[in-house]
Amino acid sequence: MVTPFDIADWIQGHLLRIEQVLSVWVGQGAPAGLGEAMRYAVLDGGKRLRPLLVLAARHAVASADGADASLHSSCDEAALRAACAVELIHAYSLVHDDMPCMDNDVLRRGKPTVHVQFGQAQALLAGDALQALAFELLVPENSAIPHNIQARLCSVLARAAGAQGMAGGQAIDLASVGVALNENQLRHMHRLKTGALLEGSVLMGATCGQANATALAALAQYGAALGLAFQVVDDILDVTADAATLGKTAGKDAAQDKPTYVSLLGLESAQRHAQDLHQQALAALEASGLPDTRALAALADKVVHRAY
Amino acid sequence: MVTPFDIADWIQGHLLRIEQVLSVWVGQGAPAGLGEAMRYAVLDGGKRLRPLLVLAARHAVASADGADASLHSSCDEAALRAACAVELIHAYSLVHDDMPCMDNDVLRRGKPTVHVQFGQAQALLAGDALQALAFELLVPENSAIPHNIQARLCSVLARAAGAQGMAGGQAIDLASVGVALNENQLRHMHRLKTGALLEGSVLMGATCGQANATALAALAQYGAALGLAFQVVDDILDVTADAATLGKTAGKDAAQDKPTYVSLLGLESAQRHAQDLHQQALAALEASGLPDTRALAALADKVVHRAY
């Protein structure tokens, strides 16, 4: 049964919940300086796309199995924990990525980056501690979340974050400065660097429920298309937007001679490519057989039409 | 039943197995440069104290529940995975700790440190990917390891590694350069910085079996005493050993004006303290009620009597 649904309300309500629990969970019990750096890295400013994808995928899957979609069942607790965990992985990757030995960026979400604010050593540790916290959130003691779901969430997140996922993509990126990649190579890099965690978010949400194989495969396709669309749009915005809108340094890729979809395809073709991927994502939702994929569809729209 | 047992054989056999599986698991499927840096950081040279603690604790617990102590049961697979996971956390922490923004060390286990060999960016990513891999190892798909054990292992490891464990201790260490810590503050720092992961190793091994509450509490005490003894001996060796024996730069703590047990207590008192902690660890094993704690006792001996 598909109930009346206001997507703006849905996003707003879930964003609020995500911010609430992140604020409770991040930095708790940490030594003062470290906790402060962790909270600075995570709170106040993120778009929370990955947590919203987790919750939207959980919403879509729950629409099929008729489960209570409130945040009170154990599976919704699992989804909320997964949503925060994936955001912590994303946040830690930004902290490390901004460091002088990587992208050497001083501005993020309109604020000084973590190492500028707290020093490089604290930034390094804060990123490390955020990754550990991500996994800690998924395996709470004395929780009603079934252990098989806890283990599966850890597994999906670890693969998405590690050498065959995000970290692997960053390593390929590192080796690609000044190198002429073709479109296949560029796609492979982005599939790992940003796609793996976005797709992982969708799969983690689907894990907090009883998605059948068809739905799971379709959601994975949605996640893959969305992940690539995200990157293509990122490359477009790096050329078309200014730093004030982006909240980070614009024009960096070209300045660093990094291959992008715009440098490879040209601006117009890149924009068409983003539209194609958007359509692929929506088609995958159709094919999923899930009755209510409106939140996932709305997030795909946001990814493609965002201004920053 | 306590069977005849040669501790040197036990350690040798288990070391071999640890090296074998680390060699298979580390860097698998990673992009070339990243995988190489990960393997360089982990393989060839570690003492493997933490993995041995996991396996020795598993051995002690299995001696009580009469389980088959071979490496073929699901719980022994769990212990082997836990052993490798904890070593990966240790290895990643060394990689990040050696970086210029932290300890700026160029020598580790007698070889150039990872960032010297592969560059800082690759070292940063290799550390990050090793942490993710540690958690991935604990939650294998299609394994006979019960999901509650998988989840519990993740939980213990995440806490031991994170802001309330190792990373937290490193942050306190960072804030302690040139500061006059008293013995309580120094102990608190080391409990987190090195103690948490050593104690976590023992608890992870105990998790791969059916330890009762008395045994678990005693093993935690053993781990805490051993963890502290390890650090006291480290401080002693930093003064008494040379770089060739240590495989790393000697005399660094004093040079960096870092508080140590030797600077706080003097060399002789520090040596007596290490002996006391050694006795506490052995007394905890007695109190555990576990029939066969010989491997754990032998590892405590090794920690206190090591020359590097």
UniProtKB/TrEMBL annotation, chains A, B:
Enzyme class: transferase
InterPro entries: Isoprenoid_synthase_dom_sf (IPR008949), Polyprenyl_synt (IPR000092), Polyprenyl_synt_CS (IPR033749), Prenyl_diphosphate_synthase (IPR053378)
Segments crossing the lipid bilayer: none
Keywords recorded for this protein, A-Z: Isoprene biosynthesis, Magnesium, Metal-binding, Transferase
Keyword Metal-binding: yes
CDD domains per UniProt: Trans_IPPS_HT (cd00685)
Gene3D superfamilies tied to this protein: Farnesyl Diphosphate Synthase
UniProt protein name: Polyprenyl synthetase family protein
